Amino acid sequence: MTGSTNTPQESAGGYPGVGRVLVVIPTYNESDNIRVIVDRVRRAAPAVDVLIADDNSPDGTGAIADELAAADPQIHVLHRPGKQGLGAAYIAGFGWARERGYDAVVEMDADGSHAPEELPRLLDAGRDADVVIGSRWVRGGKVINWPVRRLVLSRGASLYTRMAMGYPVRDATAGYRVYRMPVLDKLELDQVASQGYCFQIDLGWRAYRHGFRIVEVPITFAERERGASKMSSTIVREALVRVTVWGAQARLGSVKRALGGGQKRPG
Ligand SMILES: Nc1nc2c(ncn2[C@@H]2O[C@H](COP(=O)(O)OP(=O)(O)O[C@H]3O[C@H](CO)[C@@H](O)[C@H](O)[C@@H]3O)[C@@H](O)[C@H]2O)c(=O)[nH]1
Protein backbone atom coordinates (compact mmCIF):
# COMPACT_ATOMS: atom_id res chain seq x y z
CA MET A 1 0.00 0.00 0.00
CA THR A 2 1.42 3.40 -0.94
CA GLY A 3 0.23 6.93 -0.27
CA SER A 4 0.92 10.35 -1.76
CA THR A 5 3.23 12.65 0.15
CA ASN A 6 1.28 15.89 0.07
CA THR A 7 1.31 17.71 3.39
CA PRO A 8 -2.01 19.29 4.38
CA GLN A 9 -1.42 23.04 4.27
CA GLU A 10 -4.35 25.28 3.36
CA SER A 11 -6.57 23.09 5.51
CA ALA A 12 -4.56 23.90 8.64
CA GLY A 13 -7.41 25.98 10.12
CA GLY A 14 -9.87 23.20 9.45
CA TYR A 15 -13.65 23.37 9.41
CA PRO A 16 -15.05 25.72 12.08
CA GLY A 17 -16.14 23.78 15.15
CA VAL A 18 -15.03 20.42 13.78
CA GLY A 19 -11.32 20.83 13.06
CA ARG A 20 -9.20 19.23 10.35
CA VAL A 21 -11.45 17.12 8.15
CA LEU A 22 -10.53 14.42 5.63
CA VAL A 23 -13.08 13.23 3.08
CA VAL A 24 -12.26 9.59 2.27
CA ILE A 25 -13.52 8.50 -1.14
CA PRO A 26 -13.13 4.75 -1.84
CA THR A 27 -12.84 3.97 -5.54
CA TYR A 28 -13.05 0.95 -7.74
CA ASN A 29 -13.41 1.72 -11.46
CA GLU A 30 -14.55 5.30 -11.05
CA SER A 31 -12.47 6.89 -13.83
CA ASP A 32 -15.56 8.63 -15.24
CA ASN A 33 -16.47 10.12 -11.86
CA ILE A 34 -13.38 10.86 -9.81
CA ARG A 35 -12.41 14.22 -11.33
CA VAL A 36 -15.92 15.58 -11.05
CA ILE A 37 -16.53 14.47 -7.48
CA VAL A 38 -13.19 15.74 -6.17
CA ASP A 39 -13.69 19.09 -7.89
CA ARG A 40 -17.16 19.39 -6.36
CA VAL A 41 -15.83 18.58 -2.88
CA ARG A 42 -13.06 21.16 -3.16
CA ARG A 43 -15.54 23.84 -4.25
CA ALA A 44 -18.22 22.96 -1.72
CA ALA A 45 -15.90 22.74 1.29
CA PRO A 46 -12.51 24.33 0.55
CA ALA A 47 -11.25 23.78 4.10
CA VAL A 48 -11.40 20.00 3.93
CA ASP A 49 -8.84 17.59 2.47
CA VAL A 50 -9.59 14.61 0.25
CA LEU A 51 -8.16 11.09 0.28
CA ILE A 52 -8.92 8.78 -2.64
CA ALA A 53 -8.55 5.15 -1.50
CA ASP A 54 -8.21 3.22 -4.74
CA ASP A 55 -8.10 -0.57 -4.99
CA ASN A 56 -5.85 -0.68 -8.06
CA SER A 57 -8.83 -0.07 -10.36
CA PRO A 58 -8.26 -1.65 -13.79
CA ASP A 59 -9.82 1.40 -15.48
CA GLY A 60 -7.00 3.72 -14.38
CA THR A 61 -8.79 5.60 -11.59
CA GLY A 62 -5.57 5.49 -9.54
CA ALA A 63 -3.56 7.31 -12.22
CA ILE A 64 -6.19 10.04 -12.49
CA ALA A 65 -6.15 10.34 -8.69
CA ASP A 66 -2.36 10.83 -8.84
CA GLU A 67 -2.82 13.63 -11.37
CA LEU A 68 -5.34 15.34 -9.11
CA ALA A 69 -3.05 15.01 -6.09
CA ALA A 70 -0.09 16.41 -8.03
CA ALA A 71 -2.10 19.53 -8.84
CA ASP A 72 -3.55 20.20 -5.38
CA PRO A 73 -1.84 19.77 -1.99
CA GLN A 74 -5.18 19.08 -0.31
CA ILE A 75 -5.80 15.95 -2.41
CA HIS A 76 -4.14 12.68 -1.46
CA VAL A 77 -4.15 9.12 -2.76
CA LEU A 78 -3.91 5.77 -1.06
CA HIS A 79 -3.07 3.03 -3.55
CA ARG A 80 -4.15 -0.40 -2.41
CA PRO A 81 -3.03 -3.63 -4.05
CA GLY A 82 -6.41 -4.90 -5.28
CA LYS A 83 -10.15 -5.06 -4.72
CA GLN A 84 -10.70 -5.85 -1.05
CA GLY A 85 -14.10 -4.31 -0.45
CA LEU A 86 -15.46 -0.99 0.72
CA GLY A 87 -14.90 -1.71 4.41
CA ALA A 88 -11.19 -2.46 4.07
CA ALA A 89 -10.65 0.66 1.93
CA TYR A 90 -12.34 2.86 4.53
CA ILE A 91 -10.43 1.34 7.43
CA ALA A 92 -7.14 1.98 5.60
CA GLY A 93 -8.28 5.57 4.96
CA PHE A 94 -9.21 6.09 8.60
CA GLY A 95 -5.76 4.85 9.66
CA TRP A 96 -4.17 7.28 7.19
CA ALA A 97 -6.21 10.12 8.72
CA ARG A 98 -5.35 9.17 12.29
CA GLU A 99 -1.61 9.07 11.57
CA ARG A 100 -1.85 12.63 10.22
CA GLY A 101 -3.82 14.07 13.08
CA TYR A 102 -7.19 14.74 11.44
CA ASP A 103 -10.08 15.54 13.79
CA ALA A 104 -12.86 14.04 11.67
CA VAL A 105 -13.35 11.91 8.57
CA VAL A 106 -16.15 11.92 6.03
CA GLU A 107 -17.28 8.89 4.05
CA MET A 108 -18.48 9.68 0.54
CA ASP A 109 -19.14 7.61 -2.60
CA ALA A 110 -17.23 8.61 -5.73
CA ASP A 111 -20.18 8.41 -8.10
CA GLY A 112 -22.00 11.63 -7.19
CA SER A 113 -24.78 9.87 -5.26
CA HIS A 114 -23.71 11.91 -2.25
CA ALA A 115 -23.80 15.59 -3.17
CA PRO A 116 -20.66 17.39 -1.92
CA GLU A 117 -22.78 20.56 -1.80
CA GLU A 118 -24.56 19.00 1.21
CA LEU A 119 -21.29 18.44 3.07
CA PRO A 120 -21.26 21.78 4.96
CA ARG A 121 -24.68 20.88 6.41
CA LEU A 122 -23.36 17.52 7.61
CA LEU A 123 -20.24 19.11 9.08
CA ASP A 124 -22.31 21.77 10.83
CA ALA A 125 -24.31 18.98 12.46
CA GLY A 126 -20.99 17.41 13.45
CA ARG A 127 -20.32 20.26 15.89
CA ASP A 128 -22.85 18.75 18.29
CA ALA A 129 -22.61 15.07 17.40
CA ASP A 130 -20.07 12.27 17.35
CA VAL A 131 -21.44 10.68 14.19
CA VAL A 132 -23.51 12.36 11.47
CA ILE A 133 -25.38 10.20 8.98
CA GLY A 134 -26.64 11.68 5.72
CA SER A 135 -30.00 9.96 5.67
CA ARG A 136 -32.43 9.11 2.89
CA TRP A 137 -35.06 7.81 5.22
CA VAL A 138 -35.71 10.69 7.64
CA ARG A 139 -38.15 13.53 6.96
CA GLY A 140 -36.74 15.70 4.18
CA GLY A 141 -34.50 12.89 2.84
CA LYS A 142 -34.94 11.88 -0.81
CA VAL A 143 -33.77 9.39 -3.41
CA ILE A 144 -33.66 10.34 -7.09
CA ASN A 145 -33.71 7.84 -9.95
CA TRP A 146 -33.08 4.66 -8.01
CA PRO A 147 -34.64 1.53 -9.51
CA VAL A 148 -37.51 0.14 -7.45
CA ARG A 149 -35.53 -2.98 -6.49
CA ARG A 150 -32.75 -0.83 -4.94
CA LEU A 151 -35.32 1.25 -3.06
CA VAL A 152 -36.96 -1.87 -1.68
CA LEU A 153 -33.60 -3.42 -0.79
CA SER A 154 -32.30 -0.32 0.97
CA ARG A 155 -35.47 0.43 2.92
CA GLY A 156 -35.93 -3.26 3.69
CA ALA A 157 -32.34 -3.55 4.96
CA SER A 158 -32.76 -0.57 7.29
CA LEU A 159 -36.10 -1.84 8.56
CA TYR A 160 -34.78 -5.35 9.17
CA THR A 161 -31.74 -3.90 10.95
CA ARG A 162 -33.95 -1.84 13.27
CA MET A 163 -36.19 -4.78 14.06
CA ALA A 164 -33.53 -7.46 14.40
CA MET A 165 -30.96 -5.43 16.33
CA GLY A 166 -32.95 -2.66 17.97
CA TYR A 167 -30.62 -0.17 16.24
CA PRO A 168 -32.66 3.02 15.92
CA VAL A 169 -30.91 4.60 12.94
CA ARG A 170 -33.33 4.98 10.00
CA ASP A 171 -30.78 4.74 7.18
CA ALA A 172 -28.56 1.98 8.48
CA THR A 173 -26.60 1.40 5.25
CA ALA A 174 -26.09 5.08 4.44
CA GLY A 175 -22.64 5.78 3.09
CA TYR A 176 -22.48 9.57 3.54
CA ARG A 177 -21.20 10.12 7.07
CA VAL A 178 -19.03 12.17 9.37
CA TYR A 179 -17.11 10.44 12.18
CA ARG A 180 -15.26 12.48 14.77
CA MET A 181 -11.86 10.91 15.29
CA PRO A 182 -12.33 10.04 18.99
CA VAL A 183 -15.25 7.84 17.89
CA LEU A 184 -13.14 5.88 15.44
CA ASP A 185 -10.47 5.50 18.11
CA LYS A 186 -13.01 3.58 20.20
CA LEU A 187 -14.60 1.32 17.59
CA GLU A 188 -12.03 -1.51 17.58
CA LEU A 189 -11.56 -1.12 13.82
CA ASP A 190 -8.99 -3.92 13.78
CA GLN A 191 -11.85 -6.30 14.62
CA VAL A 192 -14.21 -5.13 11.86
CA ALA A 193 -14.55 -7.92 9.32
CA SER A 194 -17.47 -6.57 7.25
CA GLN A 195 -16.39 -6.06 3.66
CA GLY A 196 -19.38 -4.77 1.71
CA TYR A 197 -22.06 -2.19 2.49
CA CYS A 198 -22.69 -4.04 5.76
CA PHE A 199 -19.61 -2.16 6.94
CA GLN A 200 -21.86 0.88 7.36
CA ILE A 201 -24.22 -0.98 9.66
CA ASP A 202 -21.28 -2.49 11.55
CA LEU A 203 -19.64 0.86 12.35
CA GLY A 204 -22.87 2.63 13.24
CA TRP A 205 -23.89 -0.23 15.51
CA ARG A 206 -20.53 -0.13 17.27
CA ALA A 207 -20.84 3.65 17.76
CA TYR A 208 -24.38 3.24 19.08
CA ARG A 209 -23.37 0.58 21.58
CA HIS A 210 -20.56 2.81 22.84
CA GLY A 211 -23.17 5.48 23.55
CA PHE A 212 -21.92 8.02 20.99
CA ARG A 213 -24.29 10.75 19.81
CA ILE A 214 -25.53 9.82 16.33
CA VAL A 215 -27.65 12.28 14.33
CA GLU A 216 -29.31 11.74 10.98
CA VAL A 217 -29.41 14.71 8.60
CA PRO A 218 -31.69 14.48 5.54
CA ILE A 219 -29.92 14.26 2.18
CA THR A 220 -30.92 13.87 -1.44
CA PHE A 221 -29.31 10.70 -2.80
CA ALA A 222 -29.08 10.51 -6.59
CA GLU A 223 -28.44 7.37 -8.65
CA ARG A 224 -25.06 7.47 -10.41
CA GLU A 225 -25.05 8.65 -14.04
CA ARG A 226 -21.70 7.10 -15.00
CA GLY A 227 -20.01 3.80 -14.18
CA ALA A 228 -21.54 0.82 -12.42
CA SER A 229 -22.60 0.01 -8.86
CA LYS A 230 -20.54 -2.70 -7.14
CA MET A 231 -23.61 -4.10 -5.41
CA SER A 232 -23.69 -7.93 -5.58
CA SER A 233 -25.53 -10.87 -4.07
CA THR A 234 -22.45 -11.52 -1.89
CA ILE A 235 -22.81 -8.04 -0.39
CA VAL A 236 -26.51 -8.57 0.33
CA ARG A 237 -25.87 -12.01 1.86
CA GLU A 238 -23.11 -10.71 4.08
CA ALA A 239 -25.40 -8.00 5.46
CA LEU A 240 -28.29 -10.40 6.02
CA VAL A 241 -26.18 -12.95 7.88
CA ARG A 242 -24.32 -10.44 10.02
CA VAL A 243 -27.44 -8.44 10.99
CA THR A 244 -29.22 -11.64 11.97
CA VAL A 245 -26.28 -12.71 14.14
CA TRP A 246 -25.87 -9.27 15.74
CA GLY A 247 -29.59 -9.21 16.45
CA ALA A 248 -29.42 -12.59 18.17
CA GLN A 249 -26.41 -11.45 20.20
CA ALA A 250 -28.23 -8.27 21.21
CA ARG A 251 -31.26 -10.23 22.41
CA LEU A 252 -29.04 -12.66 24.31
CA GLY A 253 -27.25 -9.70 25.89
CA SER A 254 -30.58 -8.23 26.99
CA VAL A 255 -31.62 -11.50 28.57
CA LYS A 256 -28.30 -11.79 30.39
CA ARG A 257 -28.59 -8.23 31.66
CA ALA A 258 -32.14 -8.84 32.83
CA LEU A 259 -30.95 -11.90 34.76
CA GLY A 260 -27.65 -10.51 36.02
CA GLY A 261 -28.01 -6.69 35.96
CA GLY A 262 -25.71 -4.99 33.41
CA GLN A 263 -25.27 -1.41 32.32
CA LYS A 264 -24.27 -1.26 28.66
CA ARG A 265 -26.57 -0.69 25.72
CA PRO A 266 -27.90 -3.75 23.88
CA GLY A 267 -25.28 -5.92 22.23
N1 LIG B 1 -11.64 0.96 -2.84
C1 LIG B 1 -12.79 0.33 -3.06
N2 LIG B 1 -13.90 1.05 -3.31
C2 LIG B 1 -15.05 0.39 -3.52
C3 LIG B 1 -15.15 -1.02 -3.48
N3 LIG B 1 -16.45 -1.37 -3.73
C4 LIG B 1 -17.12 -0.20 -3.91
N4 LIG B 1 -16.28 0.84 -3.79
C5 LIG B 1 -16.57 2.28 -3.90
O1 LIG B 1 -17.52 2.56 -2.90
C6 LIG B 1 -18.43 3.54 -3.34
C7 LIG B 1 -19.87 2.97 -3.25
O2 LIG B 1 -19.99 1.86 -4.11
P1 LIG B 1 -21.21 1.75 -5.17
O3 LIG B 1 -21.11 0.47 -5.84
O4 LIG B 1 -21.28 3.00 -5.97
O5 LIG B 1 -22.44 1.74 -4.16
P2 LIG B 1 -23.98 1.92 -4.52
O6 LIG B 1 -24.51 0.60 -4.76
O7 LIG B 1 -24.21 2.96 -5.52
O8 LIG B 1 -24.43 2.62 -3.16
C8 LIG B 1 -24.98 2.09 -1.99
O9 LIG B 1 -24.06 1.48 -1.09
C9 LIG B 1 -23.04 2.32 -0.63
C10 LIG B 1 -22.01 1.64 0.24
O10 LIG B 1 -22.17 1.97 1.53
C11 LIG B 1 -23.63 3.41 0.12
O11 LIG B 1 -22.57 4.26 0.45
C12 LIG B 1 -24.63 4.16 -0.70
O12 LIG B 1 -25.24 5.10 0.12
C13 LIG B 1 -25.64 3.25 -1.30
O13 LIG B 1 -26.54 2.79 -0.35
C14 LIG B 1 -17.99 3.91 -4.77
O14 LIG B 1 -17.18 5.05 -4.70
C15 LIG B 1 -17.20 2.69 -5.21
O15 LIG B 1 -16.24 2.95 -6.20
C16 LIG B 1 -13.95 -1.76 -3.22
O16 LIG B 1 -13.93 -3.00 -3.19
N5 LIG B 1 -12.82 -1.04 -3.00
In short:
The protein has 267 residues and is α/β, with parallel strands linked by helices. It has helices at 34-44, 61-71, 86-99, 119-125, 148-165, 181-186, 198-209, 233-260, and strands spanning 2-3, 21-27, 49-54, 75-79, 104-107, 131-135, 142-144, 177-180, 214-218, 220-222.
Task: Please explain how this structure is put together.
The chain has about 270 residues and is an alpha/beta fold. The chain has one domain: Spore Coat Polysaccharide Biosynthesis Protein SpsA, Chain A (Alpha-Beta Complex). It has helices at about 35-45, 60-70, 85-100, 120-125, 150-165, 180-185, 200-210, 235-260; strands at about 1-5, 20-25, 50-55, 75-80, 105, 130-135, 140-145, 175-180, 215-220, 220. The longest helix has 28 residues, at about 235-260. The structure holds guanosine-5'-diphosphate-alpha-D-mannose. Guanosine-5'-diphosphate-alpha-D-mannose (GDD) binds near residues 26, 83, 84 and 154. Guanosine-5'-diphosphate-alpha-D-mannose binds next to strand 2, strand 3 and helix 3.
Jot down its keywords:
binds guanosine-5'-diphosphate-alpha-D-mannose; 8 helices; two-stranded parallel sheet; alpha/beta; 40% helix; Spore Coat Polysaccharide Biosynthesis Protein SpsA, Chain A; 267 residues; 8-stranded mixed β-sheet
Secondary structure blueprint with pairings:
Layout: E1 2-3, E2 21-27, H1 34-44, E3 49-54, H2 61-71, E4 75-79, H3 86-99, E5 104-107, H4 119-125, E6 131-135, E7 142-144, H5 148-165, E8 177-180, H6 181-186, H7 198-209, E9 214-218, E10 220-222, H8 233-260
Parallel strand pairs: 2-3, 2-5, 3-4, 6-9, 7-10
Antiparallel strand pairs: 1-4, 5-8, 6-8
Helix pairs in contact: 5-8
The structure holds guanosine-5'-diphosphate-alpha-D-mannose.
InterPro entries: DPM1-like, Glyco_trans_2-like, Nucleotide-diphossugar_trans
Keywords: Glycosyltransferase, Transferase
Family: Belongs to the glycosyltransferase 2 family.
